[in-house]
Amino acid sequence: LKDSEYKIGIDIGGTNTSLGLVDTNGRCVKKMDFSTSANKNIEEFISKLVASIHEICMIDAHEVQPVGIGIAAPAAQYRAGLIQNPANLLWGTINIADLLKRQVDLPITVINDSNAVALGELKYGLARGMKNFVAITLGTGLGAGVVVNGELVNGANGFAGELGHIIVEPNGRKCGCKRRGCVETYVSATGVCRTAFELMANELDPSKLRGWTYSNLTAKAVYDLAVEGDTLARKTFEITGEIFGKMLASTAVSFDPEAIILSGGLVHAGEFLLKPTLKSFNENVIGSLRGKVAIFPSQFSDSEAAILGASSMIDIAEAVSTE
Amino acid sequence: LKDSEYKIGIDIGGTNTSLGLVDTNGRCVKKMDFSTSANKNIEEFISKLVASIHEICMIDAHEVQPVGIGIAAPAAQYRAGLIQNPANLLWGTINIADLLKRQVDLPITVINDSNAVALGELKYGLARGMKNFVAITLGTGLGAGVVVNGELVNGANGFAGELGHIIVEPNGRKCGCKRRGCVETYVSATGVCRTAFELMANELDPSKLRGWTYSNLTAKAVYDLAVEGDTLARKTFEITGEIFGKMLASTAVSFDPEAIILSGGLVHAGEFLLKPTLKSFNENVIGSLRGKVAIFPSQFSDSEAAILGASSMIDIAEAVSTE
């Protein structure tokens, strides 16, 4: 391959930052990651990122020159290149594109992480050829990217598709966005932990969950207990799926998508989450759409869709820069 | 004006059918309507419709020949020309385009009424120049048409934007769609009546509402009592607005629209509905969109937006017929 046939995709997450060297066929030929949270100040982070960019370009003792870098990050604004004070990054509002350009002489484009996932699915994943679909990422929160008429939905201010903040329970749980009842307070890794605590309060079943503090409990721990057969842990996922299925029923009437593709850490809960979700969706979807919306997990491993989607933005970014 | 510069727009509603003769500037130069529900069989309805089409084309004792007819109807399917067994029409599933073509030799196109309203606002109304907006019609139910990236959102099966069936109350009121908690069971003319009955049950305030049967109560009657100062009638609109504002907050994060334009009979309740709606929206919209979504009533009188939007489909229909 010639150098000009590579792009770099980067997914900056709250825990890890992943980089991928992507070829023209949308294959991630080399991948690496490092801890985001270990770099508490932005200068440290940028230094680590620049070193990683050089490292990922080394192939057979030769440094390839990719055509550009696409960055996916939470709360990223496409046109401005900003990462705007996201809840789970520590640096406040930064202009990641500007900061990186000082040290790397390549075109750089920035995209919201949920939109990057949707683009990755659209261009290289299970949504290829689809005109209308929704990609939902279940991590610390619930992120979503929406494609309508073949195009990513950004909205007037770049905040369209923030489906994690659909209100599903009037006067429900307090959300990081300062409101109450947002779906991500129920359907996300943190939502699972909150539901486990609500169940412990409401029910009397014995459960190993009762030995956990709120500060230490993780969705993975709830999953492990569900695998062991713990009643409350299993019920936690059933309730999560029930709420998720109802929310997806509302998503279905909003966008009438061909598919809803699920990714993110919580999807690793597999059937414990998927089965009650599909049951609730089928019970709650409007009759005219019953059987018409496919709901399934992504084929990509963690961060791969975001890396591919971000890297695919590079040509678009060049078009934008000449606008 | 030459004949070729006129189009006909028709809005078939559960109560009335309205026709408009529309000029190239999108002005409705002549308008008429007749009772839909008085025509219980479809043959009667088509005869009445054909007579009305001839009548509306008579200008200065000369019958103009318009370039085509656009029809807006509930549950209408654009590609098929069908009106598919809508809840508030009596004829079951009919192919209105085929039925009318037997008697009128003009191109005919059919569009969902909520989408017609959105198109009317986009081409000739307050949404001119907007790339992203939502048009909501509050009648017997809650209908919506959504424009994203400058295009109407139809979805994979033509059911996108059915926002009346967003679930806002888990295990809430039974909906005509057979599910529970859909927003239109709260925010619509019938929703207002249901809320009035719930309030009569929950509260002890004296109210003239207590003299009405459920079968006879109308949103107009609740409005008239609100004007008189009836406490429960006013509270009915406050609750309706509170739920509507929360739903619009979810609409805002879904589509990030520049504007949400309101029309339909219930909007005649004016400030009784709008004030609590805007208050609730501002309290519940996500911080990043606060102050960025304009919410206001349409400038069009009843059915005018649908007539204009339906008539504007005619050129598109010709393009489609040559696909």
Can you walk through the features of this model?
The structure is a homodimer of 323-residue chains. In chain A, strand 1 (6-12) and strand 2 form a beta hairpin. Chain A is globular. Chain A is α/β, with parallel strands linked by helices and 323 residues long. In chain A, 51% of the residues are buried. In chain A, helix 3 (113-124) crosses helix 8, helix 5 crosses helix 6 and helix 6 crosses helix 7 (271-284). Helices cover 35% and strands 20% of the residues of chain A. The longest helix of chain A has 25 residues, at 231-255. In chain A, the strands form 4 sheets. In chain A, strands 3-2-1-6-9 form a 5-stranded mixed beta sheet. The first copy, chain A, starts with 5 loop residues before the first strand and ends with a helix. Chain A binds chain B through residues 131-132, 146, 148-149, 151, 153-163, 165-170, 177-179, 243, 246-247, 249-250, 253-258, 284, 286-289, 292, and chain B through 131-132, 146, 148-149, 151, 153-163, 165-170, 177-179, 243, 246-247, 249-250, 253-258, 284, 286-289, 292-293.
